[in-house]
Design goal:
Number of strands: 7
Strand order of the largest sheet: 1-2-5-4-3
Number of domains: 1
Distance between the termini: 11 Å
Radius of gyration: 15 Å
Order of helices and strands: HEHEHEEEEEH
CATH architecture: 2-Layer Sandwich
Strand content: 15-25%
Largest sheet: 5 strands, mixed
Oligomer: single chain
Structural class: alpha+beta
Length: 143
């Protein structure tokens, strides 16, 4: 992760702030690096960082978590569900904050197979590309 800083103090509204703080704190307690990815990351930087008006096509937040194996990812999932503020969705990566705000938590890093593919253990044969996650994480901005 790069050391560029963007001061968003007091700018990010709830529930986005609550969600990101909760996941970040739980991941940190397990020594799991996290970063926001996708449209939410773009919108946080452009809107809250630079004041650009945005129109959201999706309302979910995507979070990448760098883990070495499925056991570590399971520990994080258990912490998230155990917090009492997140419910597990049908998909392994999907959670709902306070029952209605979707959050996808996507593992990447050593957990990946060649070509940055992950295969969900609880859904045999279901694969997801995490191509570019490591590079994005390495160049992410601290907020």
């Amino acid at each position: 992760m790069t050391q560029k800083l963007l001061d968003l103090s007091g700018k990010i509204k709830s529930p986005i702030l609550e969600i990101l703080e909760a996941i970040s704190n739980m991941a940190a307690s397990l020594d799991i690096p996290v970063f926001v990815v996708g449209a939410a990351a773009r919108d946080i930087i452009l809107h809250y960082g630079y004041g650009v008006e945005i129109i959201r096509a999706t309302e979910d937040i995507d979070v990448g978590v760098m883990v070495e194996d499925w056991d570590k990812f399971t520990q994080l999932k258990e912490a998230i569900i155990g917090s009492g503020t997140f419910d597990q969705g049908r998909e392994s990566q999907r959670f709902f904050y306070k029952g209605n705000f979707p959050v996808d938590i996507v593992p990447f890093g050593q957990i990946s197979k060649p070509k940055d593919i992950i295969e969900w253990p609880d859904f045999e044969g279901i694969e997801m590309s995490t191509l570019g996650f490591k590079e994005s994480f390495d160049n992410s901005i601290l907020v």
